[in-house]
Structure formats: structure tokens, C-alpha cells
Amino acid sequence: MEIQSKMAFIHLRYGSGTSSKSTLHTDPGHPSADPELFTPILDVNGAEDRNTDEYRFVCPHAGHFKCKLTNIVFEMESKGEVLYRIVSWDCHLLNGLPQKEPAGPLYNIDSPEGCIRRLHFPHCETGKGKAKLTVAHVAGGNVEIIQPLTVTDTHVIINIQHLSPFGLILPWTRSPIRAQVLLFYKRMTEHRKSKLRIHLLPANVPVKEVQKQYKSYTYIDTTSSCDLKPGKKYKLLCNTTELDHTLKPEAVIFRRDCGPNYHSTFEVQLNIKAAEVTLTLLDRKGKEVWTPPPVLLTGAGAASRQMDTTGADFVHKHRETLIQRFNSVMEVADCLNSKNMITVEMYNNIQAKPTPQDQMRELYTCLDSGGRVAKEEFYDILVRRHSGLVDDLKSELDQA
């Protein structure tokens, strides 16, 4: 056994399951008590060879920063850029890890400046299960099993030396984990039907990742938290205001679905007139494990929140807030200029302003002169690349 001062790992050859060395961490690490929250920029299909979107975080200084969408915490040694996205677990690599399974999404993480010191990955284990968590570091067809510096109630913390895909793993277990139930609703007017998709997922799967796969559906925000046991069977009960509905399947075995493709666990076909649904999830003994408030479909069925107002209306309604909170002004100006929606003179006027707030005020002057088309384009950029900010503003509006 070879002892190293910083990082410990078991090196597994691709698909072989044989170990060559193992060591233990000596640095005890420490959790961050109060990391700064940030909403990442969403780069939609940033590269042609990628089929998943990429998150981008421009770190302003050294410190601890927590992503609002994924709950990953980055310990940064200095300012710099971080790029990260969820990728598929390679089944061949998993075959080389006997008796282990993924305990969360596999994140491909990169930082051109090399400014990340530690990573904190969110986990969903309860009780003794969290003590068995390790981190798989996938590189060049090999896997390094990194022993955590610290495992808190919510995160697994590791030192890093090289960046590539990282994901949580642990021995296969039926211990309960923190889980979530996600609901997606869609009206099919031509068939006089509507559809409700129900997902049972580990709690450390980002909701935004699932939403991206169901863009034509309305995400219904309701009580979602519950504890579920992997490998155990669960049954869904459904009652509606209209009797003619079908539920498939009636029962399923819960399995960890770590993405990046998320398939619905249950599907309910409803009469389009159904205004409310009551859902209950039972374990094999008939005990209730998840019972949300009655799910109202009338508001969701009218239209998704994205369609309640046009993009131009959204940009107008949130003018003052966007001026204060939106900083990537030149990104928008570049796009509008490339599409001839603003002139070179307008672009230069925006660029010449000393602060992001002044740039936003100048941008709004240009948007006002460009009419609804320009504002719709600005809104489209916000939805594609700054969706977290859009969601925040919409939720604030709903609560007002």
C-alpha cells in the first residue's frame, strides 16, 4: 500500500475490477458553513459533439460557491471559469466496480485556469449509508476511487488534482435515501385528454435537468420530498374529479436513476376536464410514503408559466430588476448585433457604459427602439442561458 499526502484512490483498470493501489487521505477537509449561492449560465449545446447542455460559472474571487441548480459546492483558490455538465455513466466502467452502483449523477467538470481546490458533491444517503460513499473519478478509460475528506449530512467533500468526470458511488444497498417526486402535466386538446407524468428520483438529481427533457410539459411545483428504498416496490394511488383515467403501471420497483436521461415512473391519462388530482405513494405494506396536497390542474392546464405572457412582456415587466441583477450585458449585445437587431453605434454605446447597470439601461433604450422582436430575442437568450434568473423572477411574481 502506497501512502500519499493529499489524495487517496483505488485505481481500477477499464472493466477489469482489479485494484492496483489504495491510500488514505490525511487532510481532514472541512465543510463550508455558508457558501455563496450562484445561478450558472446555461450554454445550450455549446459544442457540436455534445448532446447535453453545459453550465458555466464565472467565479469572481476565491471562496466557497454553491450552484443553485445542482447544489454542487466549488472551493475556489482564485477567480476563474468553471464548466460542468451531466454525462452518462459508462456501463463498462460500472462493470469494473463490483458490488457498487452510482449514487448520483456523473458530472464532467472543467476549469481552464485550474482554480478549483475542492469539490462538494450533494448526496441523498441517510443513516449509515453515507459512511460508505466514495467518489469515482473517470479518466482515460480508468476509474480512481477517491476516499472523501469529509462526508456531511448533505455533501461529500474531496480534494482534486485533475478534472474530468466525477460521480458518487457506494455498495449496493436497500437503505432508504432522500428522494423526490416530480410532476409534469400536458394537455392534448385534439384528443380531449391530458397527461400527467410522475418521476421518482434521488434527491440529488437536479430538477432543471429533468425539466429540460419535458419542455412541452408544465412542471407542477408541489411537495416532492420523501424517503424511498432502492429495490423496493411502490404503488401509486390516483383519484380525480373525473372518473375516466388510466394509470400505468400501478406499481414499480424504485431504482436510482442518475441520468442524464430521465424516464417517467408513472403516467396518468386524464379526461381533459379533470381539475384536480389526489396522489398517494404507498410502500409494499400499504404505508403512505408521499402524500402531497391535491394537485390543481386548471392553472397548469391553461398554459405553462412560460406562455402566460410573451417574452416581450416579461422583459418589460422586470425591467428594473433586470437592470440591477443582470450582468452579462455584452453577451446579449453581441447576439443582437450579429442578428442586425441593433446598430454598431448602439452596440458601441452599450459597451462604453462604465457599469453593468448603466449598460442595461442603454440596452433597454435600444430594445425600446427595436420593438417587440428585439425584446423577444432578449427573452430567448435569458431562457436559454440564464434560466435560473428567469425562474427566480417568475417565482417572485407568483408569490407577489
TrEMBL record:
<keyword id="KW-0391">Immunity</keyword>
<dbReference type="GO" id="GO:0005829">
    <property type="term" value="C:cytosol"/>
</dbReference>
<dbReference type="InterPro" id="IPR025307">
    <property type="entry name" value="FIIND_dom"/>
</dbReference>
<dbReference type="Pfam" id="PF00619">
    <property type="entry name" value="CARD"/>
</dbReference>
<dbReference type="InterPro" id="IPR051249">
    <property type="entry name" value="NLRP_Inflammasome"/>
</dbReference>
<dbReference type="GO" id="GO:0045087">
    <property type="term" value="P:innate immune response"/>
</dbReference>
<dbReference type="GO" id="GO:0006954">
    <property type="term" value="P:inflammatory response"/>
</dbReference>
<keyword id="KW-0399">Innate immunity</keyword>
<dbReference type="Pfam" id="PF23679">
    <property type="entry name" value="UPA-FIIND"/>
</dbReference>
<dbReference type="InterPro" id="IPR033516">
    <property type="entry name" value="CARD8/ASC/NALP1_CARD"/>
</dbReference>
<keyword id="KW-0963">Cytoplasm</keyword>
<dbReference type="InterPro" id="IPR001315">
    <property type="entry name" value="CARD"/>
</dbReference>
<keyword id="KW-0395">Inflammatory response</keyword>
<dbReference type="GO" id="GO:0042981">
    <property type="term" value="P:regulation of apoptotic process"/>
</dbReference>
<feature type="domain" description="CARD">
    <location>
        <begin position="307"/>
        <end position="397"/>
    </location>
</feature>
<protein>
    <submittedName>
        <fullName>Uncharacterized protein LOC108259740</fullName>
    </submittedName>
</protein>
<dbReference type="Pfam" id="PF13553">
    <property type="entry name" value="FIIND"/>
</dbReference>
<dbReference type="InterPro" id="IPR011029">
    <property type="entry name" value="DEATH-like_dom_sf"/>
</dbReference>
<feature type="domain" description="FIIND">
    <location>
        <begin position="34"/>
        <end position="309"/>
    </location>
</feature>
